[in-house]
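Action item from last meeting closed. Structure (117 res):
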């Protein structure tokens, strides 16, 4: 039972859950596995390889950012991109603003009402 439990709580299965249940990207793990097989011209791509490829996307210490696996392109994108933009009185974000999170800013105790604040 313990070996089964360890397999169920593997990094690969945790990543599958994150992709499906928190990011709405069901099947992304398997698609990445196929993509890596094409990039590497090999059918021998393990679940650990897939997990490592996702980690590499945001690893600031990656030695070869232009590797065949795509390097740390997501980190570079996030460093140069904007996850939120204010246009007039409107806030555009990746994700959603809901009644539960509206005005919430990490590190602040009180919500803010003005997007310019």
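Sequence:
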């Amino acid at each position: 039972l313990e070996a089964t439990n360890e397999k169920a709580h593997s990094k690969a299965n945790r990543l599958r859950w994150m992709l499906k249940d928190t990011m709405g990207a069901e099947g992304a793990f398997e698609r990445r596995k196929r993509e890596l097989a094409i990039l590497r011209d090999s059918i021998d791509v393990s679940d650990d390889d897939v997990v490592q490829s996702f980690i590499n996307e945001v690893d600031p210490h990656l030695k070869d950012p232009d590797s065949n696996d795509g390097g740390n392109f997501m980190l570079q994108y996030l460093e140069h991109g904007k996850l939120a933009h204010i246009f007039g009185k409107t806030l555009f974000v990746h994700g959603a603003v809901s009644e539960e999170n509206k005005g919430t800013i990490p590190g602040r105790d009180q919500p803010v009402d003005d997007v310019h604040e």
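Note appended to the action item: Residues 7 and 13 are 8 Å apart (CA to CA).
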